Amino acid sequence: MRIGNVEIRPLGGGLGCLLMIFFSLVASIVLTVLLNLLL
Predict the structure, then answer these.
(1) Cα–Cα distance between 32 and 28 in angstroms, integer?
(2) What pLDDT sits at residue 19?
(3) What is the end-to-end Cα distance of the chain in Å, rounded?
(4) N or C: which end of the chain has fewer CB within 10 A?
(5) pTM, whole model, 2 decimals?
(6) How is 1-39 classified by DSSP, letter by letter?
(7) Which stretches are transmembrane (predicted)?
(8) pLDDT score at 11
(9) pLDDT tens digits for range 14-27
């Protein structure tokens, strides 16, 4: 992925990129559930 003239290479290639996206989705869902339980 390129942003301007900077090349960004995700760790582990395509699989690592998918895992990072998946992990961020799971983390946001878990944080939302925890906040709803606490409040």
Answers:
(1) 6
(2) 83
(3) 39
(4) C
(5) 0.58
(6) -EETTEE---TTHHHHHHHHHHHHHHHHHHHHHHHHHH-
(7) 12-38
(8) 67
(9) 777 788 889 999 99
